Amino acid sequence: MSSARPAPRKPEWLKIKIQGGENLARVNGLLSRYALNTVCKEANCPNRMECYGSRTATFMILGALCSRDCAFCNVAHGPPQPPDGGEALRVASAAKELGLGYAVITSVTRDDLPDGGAGHFARVIRELKNTLAGIVVEALVPDFQGSGEALETVLGAGVDVLNHNVETVPRLYPAVRPQALYPRSLGLLERAGKTAGGVRTKSGLMVGLGETAEEIREVIRDLKNVGCDFLTIGQYLAPSASHYPVAEYIHPARFEEYRRYALSLGFSGVASGPFVRSSYRAAEMAALH
User: Fold this and answer.
1) pTM of the model
2) Residue 4 CB neighbours (<10 A)
3) Which of 24, 95, 126, 161 is 20 to 30 Å from 264 at the Cα level?
């Protein structure tokens, strides 16, 4: 992690409108009843109230403890538990009760498992497809430590959108996500995009960690060069004082510049803004293609 420095003052455009209502309470209750984790809660997502209020959520499978300890992430780190054999059915049941036509599944990183959790991803995807006719499934996967076999397991389950975040620029990897490799993440996306069956690929970036605008443009070009279809870009917000510090709050105008640049390179869909996260309004983005 970088040395401590005072965090910049939050600008007006980063104030979140508090939302509540019947749907918010219903989704919270449903997730509790089915004993499911969501990245919305575990990663302290700023859009949680909006998404829950719209009766949607990003399911986080394979437990709530991550085998990695990235400096930016709010998901808890520790020895993970064995995969839950009943989780796939509970995810599908919750998705059916929510009336989802588009489901996003992600997970903690499970370097402790021989397949990185790929088989569990596949079970959840298949259960969703068997339970809800016509559902579109997006899987936001870890890098599986570069295992092509693990990736093929997820792709073979019938996933529609394969999402893997590069998160930041290569220069910041040692400080921000030291257990990851930028070329490995690009390689995963490239391999997924070349797989027969029409799967679309997607990736996401955080900004405000100390990168330059040109470094972001370079990553956007790298993603397009490996065939990435969809891109999300959002403001990094440090979950706590012990996490990697925010270097800069990016003005909305620059987010718009990044969006236009990515679209000019041929991305099918781009969401770029302060509160954009990898799975935010995912169904809307996929519908753009």
Assistant:
1) 0.88
2) 9
3) 161
Q: What number is the average pLDDT over the span 163-174? A: 97
- Beta strands across the sheet bearing 37-38: 37-38, 58-61, 102-107, 136-140, 161-163, 200-207, 230-235, 269-273
For the ranges 10-19, 20-29, 73-82, 152-161, the maximum mean pLDDT occurs at 152-161
Amino acid at 251: H
Burial classification of residue 246, based on how many CB atoms lie within 10 Å of its CB (0-12 exposed, 13-18 middle, 19 or more buried): buried
Q: List the Cα angle 18/24/29 in 5-degree steps.
A: 140
Q: What is the mean pLDDT of residues 63-72?
A: 80
d(CA 61, CA 140): 11
Q: What is the mean pLDDT of the chain?
A: 87
Please give the Cα distance from 217 to 206 (Å, whole number): 13
In order of their start, the domains of the chain are 12-287 (3.20.20.70)
* Cα 26 to Cα 38, 50, 52, 56, distances in angstroms: 15, 13, 8, 11
Q: How far apart are CA 176 and CA 197, in angstroms?
A: 34
The C-alpha atoms of residue 225 and residue 187 are separated, in whole angstroms, by 11
Amino acid code (one letter) for 176: V
Token pair 């797989």 is found at 195
Which amino acid does the sequence have at 174?
P
